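Colleagues,

For the teaching module next term, I've prepared a clean inverse folding example: a structure given as tokens, and then the sequence designed for it. I'd like students to try predicting residues themselves before seeing the answer, so please don't circulate the second half yet.
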């Protein structure tokens, strides 16, 4: 299966109609992070279709030299990242979530540090109730 095989189009300029050169594509209405769920649009035998999510009108024009008109409405996806290689050796606290200097490096040490910083409740004399 070829990932991201369908062309994607957006309507960031806010146009009423976008001409596209294909009958099957994805509509994202706006560039991320303001995009809506990527909606698959299949025109079938029709020459026009409306995105059911954002109501953008798409018209099929097979004579286009670009994927769409205006050309800036094509959403070019970034190539997928390849995660097939070996995972890097990362210690707890390094990498994405660095620990502050002097922070405990193991769960046991973290619990001991937490217990030493947690204030203890004072014991009340027998028979006294909290109000």
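(Answer key — instructors only)
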């Amino acid at each position: 299966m070829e990932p991201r095989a369908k062309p994607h189009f957006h309507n960031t300029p806010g146009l009423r109609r976008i001409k596209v050169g294909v009958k099957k594509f994805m509509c994202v209405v706006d560039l991320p992070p303001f995009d809506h769920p990527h909606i698959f649009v299949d025109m079938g035998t029709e020459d026009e279709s409306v995105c059911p999510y954002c109501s953008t009108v798409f018209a099929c024009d097979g004579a286009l030299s670009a994927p769409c008109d205006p050309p800036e409405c094509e959403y070019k996806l970034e190539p997928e990242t390849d995660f097939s290689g070996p995972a890097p050796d990362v210690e707890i606290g390094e990498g994405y979530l660095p620990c502050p200097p002097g922070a405990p490096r193991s769960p046991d040490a973290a619990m001991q540090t937490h217990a030493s910083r947690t204030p203890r409740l004072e014991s009340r004399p027998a028979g006294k109730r909290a109000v």
